[in-house]
What we know:
- The protein is an alpha+beta fold.
- It has one domain.
- The protein is built from five helices and six strands.
- The protein has helices at 12-24, 46-50, 62-77, 106-109, 111-116; strands at residues 27-31, 40-44, 54-58, 87-88, 96-100, 126-130.
- The chain has a six-stranded mixed sheet.
- It is globular, with a radius of gyration of 15 Å.
- It starts with 11 loop residues before the first helix and ends in a 30-residue tail after the last strand.
Amino acid sequence: MIPMTLRIAEDASDEKLLSDIDKFGWHMVAIEEDATGPEYIFTVGLFYTFEHPEIVIMGLPRDIMCQFLEDIVSLIRTGKKYSNLFRDTDLASFPITFRNVNPEKYKEYLGYATWFYKPLSAPFPVLQFVWPDKSGLFPWETDYDSRFLTRQHLLYKTDS
């Protein structure tokens, strides 16, 4: 567990987040689709509890994103570690990979996690779960179908 002073709940949502992290080790935050981007879900508490980067998934149906996060957390509990450019072919019927999220994107996309980790003196790590186009290509690969970028904003550092 990462040593840090936990935040004080200011409302019922904060109480739920802190309670879930205390009880389960993590919490899931869903952000609905709007004019600026697709629906996405991210974790809060993985770094605090398991010393594992938080995970953000974007643009898939909500129930599928939730299931992916639950499966990933189950594996993290058993000691599995995901990292930048880790490619997985076991989680889904298609390959997925993870990329380090640029800390400059945290405020815009991961506000609640930023609130939780405010007591830390350094940025907490976050990985973006990146899924391929229908041809199995990832956004940084030649011939990737860029139409999928409207469903999956790329939050990763371009130099990593």
